[in-house]
Amino acid sequence: MSVFKQLVVLGLMAAFGYAGYMYYASQHVTEVTGAGTAAPREVLIEVALTETRQIAQTVEAVGTTRARQSIQIEPETDGRVAEIYIQAGTQVDQGAVLVKLDDRVARADLAEASARLTEQQQILARIERLRSTNAVALATLEEATARLAEAEAQLERARQGLADRTITAPFSGVVGLPEVDIGAQLEQGDMIARLDDLSEVELEFALPETLYAQVRPDLAIEARAAAFPDRLFSGLIVAVDSRIDPVSRSFRARAVIPNPDGVLPAGMFMSLTLTLSEHERLTVPEEALIFEAAQVFVFRIGSDGIARKAEVKTGLRRDGHVTVHAGLNPGDSVAVRGHQRLADGMAVRIKTPESGEIETSGTQIDERDS
Predict the structure, then answer these.
(1) Given CA atoms 348, 351, 357, 360 in this order, what sign does their dihedral have?
(2) Are 203 and 64 in contact (CB under 8 A)?
(3) Residue 21 phi, psi dihedral angles, 5° rounding
(4) pTM of the predicted protein model
(5) Taking a C-beta distance cutoff of 8 angstroms, is the pair 257, 237 a contact?
(6) pLDDT along the chain (370 residues), means of 10
(7) SS (H, E, C) 71-104
(8) CA neighbor of 260 nearest in space, from 68, 46, 56, 34
């Protein structure tokens, strides 16, 4: 068979196919009445009303907790551990004694410095009396005065040396695991334990640079931790970094989360949701949307029971609803079930709880028959 004949046969087959499709579509959409006129077929659908909702623009991130204050407890001087007053995980107040080093030598130094001071005070008193009668030279008085000042400084040094043998908490917090035992010989700078103020925790996280203009202090966050799956922690951003990382193209932000019961430790990984803004927006259920290429439509149901196709401009999606910026008005009725078989201008029958009717696979049935 020649190419021309093949093209003719294909054209005839296409024509017959198109005619058959048009006949099927006309029978599917309309019914012919006894008078010979076409009446629209009613399609059973479910509808929902457009409504105004408070929609939050949010962004998700992950971060790690930090203590409000955190230090390593270290001795100011060398010495042997004589007493330990701390236990891991306990809350201590500011000024509480944590560890004592052996202070026998320090106490002896203090007693010696105190005796030397008393001696120099007595010497100066005698020289002052003699000086009043010109029995000693002025230089002798000045030397005695200097010796007294030196003795006072030595006494102060001895007092500080004794005080350094007792290690106290500089602020209220929770003590971590002790790293030493009684009898251990410590050197200046050795870590005894860690002290964390966990009345609040700081959560540090990174965000993409595209959000830099929108992130500011006092924005609210909500955070969750895998250790507490049923608990939501709320906080506020307190600081935003002034630099953007040139490699990751992100910037750091820091939030504070109240932690009055102390359940959040330092170093815990948390996922968070940052609320950038909240606005009232017109919304429809997501299932009402119909996508055709780059356009989005819904079927708006008029008071006359006719479905009309309406193009809409959509925005954010939250909790099964999507914001609509154009194409609908508050209170409009839109099809959310059964609209796959609708065409523009079709008559509809709205399903109600009283009707007991449902629609499955394009077939209308009655629940009373099932």
Answers:
(1) positive
(2) yes
(3) -65, -45
(4) 0.58
(5) no
(6) 62 64 50 44 78 80 92 90 88 91 91 92 89 84 90 92 90 90 88 92 93 91 93 94 92 94 91 84 82 83 83 80 83 82 80 52 34
(7) EEECCCCCEEEEEECCCCCCEECCCCEEEEECCH
(8) 68
